[in-house]
C-alpha cells in the first residue's frame, strides 16, 4: 500500500465535480418528468389534491435550488483541477460546459414550472402573472439552448469537408427539446383562451439520463 498513483489521484481530484454534475443532471431529468406528468399527461390525482400538489411543488423547487447551488461549485472544481492537470483539458472541458448547460436549463425549467403552477391555480387561463412568467422563461431557454450548443460543438464539432459524427444527433435531441419548450410557450401565449393548449412540448427530455 502507498499513496495513490498519479492517474488515481487525478480521478480522486475530479470525483467531487463529477458527482455534482451528475446530481444536476438527475435533478433536471426528475423535475422535467414531473412537469410533463402534471401538465401534459394531466395527473389529476395530484393536481386535484392540494396536499399532494404542494408536496410535489416543494420537491421540484428543492431540486431546482440544488442545481443552482451545486452547479457553480462543480464548475469551480473542474476549472481548478484543470489548472492542476492541463493534460486533461480535452476530457473535462466538456464537463464544464455540460454543467453550465444543466444549470441554465434548470433555471429556465423553474421559471416555466412556476408559471404553469400559476396557470393551474388560475383555472388554466392566462392572466398577467401567468403571461409574465411564460414570457420571462423564453430568454432563459434561449440561454440554455446556447449553452447546450456550446457543449455539443466542443464534443462533436462540425468540420467542413468531414462527415458529421452520428453521435452528435444523440446530444442534439436535448437541444431540440429545449427549442420545443420555447416554441410551446409561444404557442400557449398565442392560443385562443377557449382552446385547450397543446402541452405535448413538455414530453421530450431536455437532458440525457
Description:
The chain has 6 helices and no strands. The mean pLDDT is 93. The chain is globular. It has helices at residues 6-39, 44-47, 50-84, 89-121, 128-155, 167-190. α4 packs antiparallel against α5 (128-155). With 209 residues, the chain is mainly α. It is 76% helix and 0% strand.
For the report, how would you describe the main beta sheet? none
- What is the helix tally? 6
User: Which ranges are low-confidence, i.e. pLDDT below 50, for 5 or more consecutive residues?
Assistant: none
Binned, the helix content reads: over 70%
Q: How many individual β-strands? A: 0
Features:
6 helices; mainly alpha; 209 residues; 0% strand
Helix-strand layout with pairing:
Elements: H1 6-39, H2 44-47, H3 50-84, H4 89-121, H5 128-155, H6 167-190
Helix pairs in contact: 1-3, 1-4, 3-4, 4-5, 5-6
Amino acid at each position: 500500500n502507498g499513496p495513490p498513483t498519479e492517474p488515481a489521484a487525478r480521478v480522486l481530484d475530479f470525483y467531487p465535480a463529477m458527482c455534482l454534475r451528475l446530481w444536476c443532471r438527475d435533478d433536471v431529468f426528475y423535475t422535467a418528468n414531473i412537469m410533463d406528468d402534471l401538465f401534459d399527461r394531466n395527473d389529476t390525482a395530484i393536481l386535484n389534491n392540494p396536499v399532494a400538489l404542494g408536496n410535489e411543488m416543494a420537491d421540484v423547487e428543492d431540486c431546482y435550488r440544488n442545481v443552482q447551488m451545486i452547479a457553480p461549485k462543480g464548475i469551480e472544481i473542474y476549472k481548478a483541477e484543470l489548472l492542476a492537470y492541463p493534460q486533461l483539458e480535452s476530457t473535462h472541458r466538456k464537463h464544464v460546459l455540460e454543467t453550465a448547460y444543466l444549470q441554465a436549463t434548470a433555471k429556465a425549467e423553474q421559471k416555466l414550472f412556476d408559471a404553469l403552477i400559476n396557470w393551474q391555480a388560475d383555472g388554466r387561463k392566462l392572466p398577467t402573472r401567468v403571461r409574465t412568467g411564460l414570457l420571462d422563461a423564453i430568454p432563459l431557454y434561449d440561454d440554455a439552448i446556447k449553452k447546450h450548443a456550446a457543449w455539443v460543438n466542443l464534443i462533436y464539432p462540425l468540420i467542413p469537408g468531414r462527415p458529421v459524427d452520428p453521435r452528435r444527433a444523440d446530444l442534439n435531441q436535448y437541444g431540440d427539446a429545449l427549442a420545443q419548450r420555447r416554441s410551446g410557450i409561444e404557442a400557449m401565449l398565442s392560443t385562443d383562451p377557449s382552446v385547450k393548449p397543446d402541452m405535448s412540448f413538455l414530453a421530450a427530455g431536455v437532458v440525457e439520463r
